[in-house]
Amino acid sequence: MQFKKLAFLLLFLGFSSTAMAQMEIGIQFSPTISGNRFIAEDRHNFEKSNSALRLGVGVVGDYFFSNNYAFSSGLMYRSKGSKISYTYMVESGDGVVTPAKETDELTVQYLEIPLTLKLFTNEVAPDIVLYFQVGGALGTKVSGQVDQKKVINGEKTAKRFNVFETSAVLGTGAEMQLGQSTKLFGGVTYLRGLSNIDNYYKKQLNDKNLAIKNNGVSIDVGIKF
């Protein structure tokens, strides 16, 4: 019985060391040009006023199941959103209804788990390989602001946004080997929001078909160990 336990322990340790040898963990910094896109009726005249520079930072991990293929995940903190403008109707005291234009700056912070597949080339130069990344990401809201305010009219602005977000991820980049186990990497990632982030405007404008989604392009730089 003791021999079986010892054999099982050695087998477990051997499997763990093999798994760890196939895993590369690193730190990633991702400044992002963030924007929004809209699904709304034309009468609201929703449009993106301008893009915004947002922050992304976190821990990433690549699990290699062959020399050129890896499952990539991690935990990222990402800030998203931009300035948007829209039209709403205002009724005056004499019953006349006129359109008015409003501009809001949306800022929503998420904790995000990427779930992607990475495909690596062979060396294109000494110690340098290219990679291509495709998959998705699951995010949960940490906080939110409108016009850099956490409270408007006695209500927390974070409540205006849905708790969860899903995104499609598409990226490419390069890695450089430094020493035996250290790698520098850099690339570009396109983040396309798939789910509606809005929990406010469709109620405010009485339009259940309205949806606001995040978009972004990030410049990724980091180091893996």
UniProtKB/TrEMBL annotation:
Keywords: Signal. InterPro entries: Beta-barrel_OMP_2, OMP/PagP_B-barrel. The keyword NAD does not apply. Residues 21-198 form the Outer membrane protein beta-barrel domain. It comes from the Bacteria. The keyword Signal applies. Transmembrane segments: none annotated. SUPFAM superfamilies: OMPA-like (SSF56925). Residues 1-21 form the signal peptide. This is Outer membrane protein beta-barrel domain-containing protein.
